[in-house]
Design goal:
Layout: E1 2-8, H1 14-30, E2 34-40, H2 49-56, H3 75-78, E3 84-87, H4 98-105, H5 115-122, H6 124-133, E4 141-145, H7 146-151, H8 153-158, E5 167-171, E6 181-183, H9 189-196, E7 202-207, E8 211-220, E9 224-233, H10 241-245, E10 251-253, H11 260-276, E11 281-290, E12 304-310, H12 320-327, H13 332-366
Parallel strand pairs: 1-2, 1-3
Antiparallel strand pairs: 4-7, 5-6, 5-7, 8-9, 8-11, 9-10, 11-12
Helix pairs in contact: 1-13
Length: 367
């Protein structure tokens, strides 16, 4: 198949997206597919095919801004012949439902989950509400909105009285830990909330959990499967933007050192969490697991919470999602091939439903 690999984008994860696209492109070619590079510059413009090809070949680590109206560059997307799209644009304007909506409008199969589940997973407040409604464990949290906070911050702070440090403050929508603060003292809450409001109009305030950060990869369509577990050991106080992209101090351990009972529980909840958001295709579900020591094996009755559901995880050479499936017996070439198959199958089902609706309307109209 001709697979259009979409990469780059406007978010802070632009370079990560380019690296992911290189890994996926090699795997797609190994699986027998033809890769069609589709690059998006940091200003949102679609770039010329030759420039996108240079980036995938390693000649560019990021795409230069085009400096034109975005709509004038859509020809670079519309002129190519592809059978399936493989979006790898991380963060906002990529995994938040916007790019998925464009793929739907183009009536092309695309890898990954749909508009609703992408948008829901990207918004931490919405995701937590859906997970709670499904009876799944999330840490205690409160949502602070810009309008009420601007009018009466003291009232907002009073709602946070039940939280004891450490407290985490996060923009509701965002990625790469941008704007996140670990608050060691309640006197710092106001500053942390003001910082998070620079990045979104709503803020999540969460109870801090002393424990381990674990990740599980999920794959499937009608039936979802979970991989083995991996673990992130932060190189700093928590796994922030600098630790992820600038300082390279974090350890990525896979498989995680867990007893069989805890691992089975986490894998089952990972599937349930993705299903609760209406997801299919792929996701990485991140957990917080309370433990007496960060690297000690955890007894089966350890308490865990869903921290985040990432519907477009990284595909770099060290990213957890492909690494966990490799350890689960699915090499990356087979993994991307399966994701393409799911995209085609889901698109076929979507068309069948659309045809059914049109057929029913024709029947009713003829009566």
């Amino acid at each position: 198949m001709n697979v259009g690999v979409i990469f780059g984008g406007r978010s802070v994860e632009h370079k990560v997206s380019v690296a992911s696209a290189r890994t996926v492109s090699r795997a797609l070619e190994d699986a027998g597919h033809r890769v069609v590079p589709l690059g998006i510059a940091p200003d949102g413009c679609w770039v010329h095919h030759d420039l996108a090809s240079r980036a995938l070949a390693g000649g560019l680590d990021d795409l230069p801004p085009v400096g034109a109206p975005v709509v004038s560059t859509f020809g670079h997307l519309l002129s190519v012949e592809v059978d399936v799209l493989f979006p790898l644009v991380h963060g906002t304007w990529g995994e938040d439902g916007t790019l998925q909506g464009l793929c739907e409008m183009l009536d092309l199969p695309y890898v990954g989950t749909g508009v609703l589940s992408s948008a829901a997973a990207m918004d931490k407040a919405v995701a937590k509400q859906l997970l709670q409604a499904a009876g799944l464990p999330v840490v205690d949290y409160e949502v602070i909105s810009r309008g009420p906070w601007s009018e009466d911050p003291e009232d907002g702070l009073s709602r946070l009285g039940r939280f004891e440090p450490p407290i985490f403050v996060k923009p509701s929508v965002g990625g790469s830990s941008v704007g996140i603060s670990k608050v060691p003292d309640k006197s710092c809450l106001r500053t942390a909330i003001d910082l998070a409001l620079r990045f979104d109009d709503r803020v999540i305030v969460e109870a801090g959990i002393d424990g381990r950060e674990l990740e599980c990869a999920v794959l499937g369509y009608q039936e979802l499967e979970a991989s083995v577990l991996g673990e992130i050991v932060p190189g700093k106080d928590f796994y922030d933007y600098a630790d992820k992209y600038l300082e390279d101090g974090a350890q990525l351990l896979a498989p995680a050192d867990l007893d069989d009972g805890t691992a089975a529980d986490l894998r089952a909840v990972a599937v349930d969490a993705f299903a609760a958001l209406g997801g299919w295709g792929m996701a990485r579900v991140d957990f917080l697991l309370e433990a007496p020591a960060p690297l000690a094996p955890v007894p089966g009755d350890g308490r865990f919470y869903i921290n985040e559901v990432n519907t477009l995880p990284g595909f770099t050479s060290i990213s957890m999602y492909p690494r966990l499936w490799e350890l689960s017996g699915v090499p990356i070439s087979a993994l991307v091939d399966r994701l393409v198959e799911i995209a085609v199958e889901r698109h076929r089902d979507r068309r069948r439903l659309d045809d059914g609706i049109k057929g029913w309307i024709a029947e009713v109209s003829s009566e």
